[in-house]
Amino acid sequence: MADFLRRRREALRPEDVALPPGARRRTQGLRREEVASLAVMSTDYYTRLEQRRGPQPSVQMLASLTRALRLTADERDYLYRIAGHHAPASLSAAPHVAPALLRVLDRLDDSPALILGDLAETLVQNTMATALFGDASRYTGLARSGVYRWFTDPAERAHYPEADWDRQSRAQVASLRASYGLRGPRSRADVLVRTLRRTSTEFAELWDWHEVAQRFADRKTLIHPELGAIEVDCQALFTEDQSQTLLVLTAAPGTEGHEKLRMLAALGLNRFTRAAERQGLPDGSTA
């Protein structure tokens, strides 16, 4: 595993992950500290992995390394196996993120951006998206789906003005029906639908309307606990098979929303720095 990590790190160029090339680089490929930063782990922990001194990394750590090193699906599966874990199933809770979307996300440091699976599961998010929506990596099981949380967790709706809840509910259900059409019965989408029909009267009524839609563009108002209402434009970029979406939130220059996004960037950077410091524990575990 140590040799594999080192070889993959040396094969990457700074521009592959939106880093400046630097005037004097003595290291071939990326530096260890750069990979550690991309994976949101301490440099010491990553260094010990490459030097065969580290503990067996957890599945969560392997998922972070997969994204940081831009591994293909085959390389990801190989890393999991040599680290002593089963390779993720194709429809597991931590699917392989499309490298093309990751390359775009790497270059978005001034706008909230996140990559979603077709069941509204956040696969990866930048620091501004985390500052706006919170860390979605803490959810497990069906709660990883934003659709599930929307209809079962009242806290999920705190991100939107109450006047927008009905519109958001219809949009969530219409998007899920589009995913259900792609996946079909006996899929994870089917499990999600059957569970929500049992637990949410609102969902069951909207599901029976048979509305189908995937939004490519939208304008919405989001609520931040410190900055208040932020009006943003949403743009979505889909992979060819419609299984993943890059969602980017922007605001026109000179608007109040644009100014609040600038403030959000500062908040996100501060929280990211504090999180990285907390995650620099000897065992490499996340806080």
TrEMBL record:
| GO MF annotations, alphabetized | DNA binding
- Pfam families, alphabetically? HTH_31 (PF13560), MLTR_LBD (PF17765)
Domain named HTH cro/C1-type: which ranges?
A: 4-76
Q: What is this protein called?
A: Transcriptional regulator
Species this chain originates from: Streptomyces carminius
